[in-house]
Design goal:
5-stranded mixed β-sheet; alpha+beta; YaeB-like fold
Length: 97
């Protein structure tokens, strides 16, 4: 299964890569790898992760970082709606549904 990023989710991801890279050399790459692994897990078994909001909105955490990939399955693809921080602005991404 493949994935598509909502334009705002892509922007969030790029901002976090830049932020972590500025903090420490190589940290942005580690964040990106954690993101890729989370998305790969969602694509491999999209129903594995718990539903956080209907209709069928799920999330998977980024190992080592305080972020979740919020996604849903649409037409055989995983649609990434947000790269959301664990404690900032809960459910701000609802308008992207």
């Amino acid at each position: 299964m493949s994935y598509v990023l909502h334009p705002e989710a892509a922007r969030e991801h790029e901002q976090q890569v830049a932020y972590y890279q500025e903090r420490q050399r190589g940290l942005g790459q580690r964040y990106h790898l954690a993101f890729r692994r989370a998305v790969a897990a969602a694509c491999a078994t999209p129903t594995r992760f718990r539903i956080v909001r209907e209709p069928q909105i799920r999330k998977v955490g980024l190992k080592g970082f305080p972020f979740d990939v919020v996604y849903r399955e649409v037409g055989g693809d995983v649609q990434v709606l947000a790269v959301a921080h664990h404690r900032r602005r809960p459910e701000y991404w609802i308008g992207r549904l």
